[in-house]
Amino acid sequence: MPALQDMVHFKSRFSMGKIFANLSLTQRVMTIIFFGILFVGITIAIMLENEHHKSVLQQNKMQAVTFLYGIERDLIETEANDPKVLNQILQKAATHRNGELEFSLFSLSLLNAEGGVVTKTSQSKEHQMVMGQTQGADFDSMAGHHVQLLQKENSPFAGGEVQYFHDDKTGQKITTMTVSIPVKNTDYILSANLDLKKTMAAIEQTDRVFEQTLFGSFAIGFLVLYGVIDFAIRKGLVNPIRKISIVTSDISHGNFSARIGDLCCPELQHLGTSVDRMAENIEQLISEQETAYLQSLKSLMKALEAKDPYTAQHSARVAKFSVLLGKQVGLPPKELKLLEKGALMHDLGKIGVPDNVLNKPSALDDAEFLQMKSHPVTTAKIMKPLSRFKEFAQIAAWHHERWDGKGYPDGLQGEEIPILARIVCIADTWDAMTGDRIYRKGMSQEKAISIMENEKDSGQWDPYLLQEFISLIKENNQPSIEMETRQSA
């Protein structure tokens, strides 16, 4: 059986630990604070209630002493020694003043110097029954003890301790207090046995109101505290951690320009600064690698220019026309720069095409055309290491794709083709139509515009971009643009 209890206890601890481990940081903090405040609140409530009980009972005791002093005056004024007369005085005082008291009287007793009962009065048969069944002997013993105490210490009063008795007949708990005073100029001791039923009922009622108020205040205070702490934790800890997580995720996905910046939590600022410094170092390293790689590409462009001067000049003109069209459709400056560099290198893969195919003075046969068609893929492979400039590879790979999906190498269609590749496609076609080749003379600009307008819906180009390009050429004096572009190339 003990082993079973230990197992249940272990499982309970394990389950509670598992639940606590699954809580968020805010929930953990608030759980600890909740139980801490609850413990402190209950402790304070018990202390306050105990102090309140002591205060009320002390008030009852002092009221009882004052009540007995009033009876004392009546006894002194009467100067009687007859027990019947003395009993009448006690009975009259108890009857007339009982309604003014915060307690009820079980009995009033007049004792002699030896502790013997001279006379005693009870308020009701019920009280007499209770006195007889429960604590009559105890009261007489307590009163006798008070006689000895008052004689020994010469105190103005004695008693005031709360006593509890159990009524076997009714099952009720009876709360009493015995208070005694010496009667001046006599050998008598006057004792009152108090029934604290009304007092305890009032205390219980006050306790209920106090506990309800305390619970309400605790609930409201906890909710307010929860909101404040939740806000503080989110602002000072959760949000900064989330920001660090987002930035580190961006960095891990190649966005090395992402930065954490300033955080409101000093403890996390060191971590954020370290992450930013790491990102800067990575970005600098990659930038240096990319710069070196771009230099290699420029060297390849020089080699291609030596191998095929036309391709180099053609690439420069395509870049110029591409940028003009990019500005026409409102591309941001950053994309315009990518567009220009990507267009300059869009035919770099032709360096892998044999010279006899690249510079053939006549039309290409099918086998030669297949070799020529491989240059976009070759260019894209060359550009692939430039991970931050993926647009270069996209332009290189897909500037021969068609809007209707019949292009090469991947048969992309419509919006699947990146906009920069679609722009270069139009600029590349335009320069191929108007530029002079080894085996033919370039057509006039008017004829080229006419062909493009007639084939606007043929599916080769993006209709919107093509119309913008035609408008650009017409509105900005195409011959002058053409001349300026060819001279700069």
Automatic annotation (TrEMBL):
Keywords: Membrane, Transmembrane, Transmembrane helix. Residues 289-485 form the HD-GYP domain. This is Metal dependent phosphohydrolase. The keyword Nucleotide-binding does not apply. One of its GO terms (biological process) is signal transduction. The keyword Repeat does not apply. InterPro entries: HAMP_dom, HD/PDEase_dom, HD_domain, HD_GYP_dom. Residues 311-433 form the HD domain. Gene3D superfamilies: 6.10.340.10, Hypothetical protein af1432. One of its GO terms (cellular component) is membrane. CDD domains: HAMP (cd06225), HDc (cd00077). It comes from Candidatus Terasakiella magnetica. It holds the Pfam family HD_5.
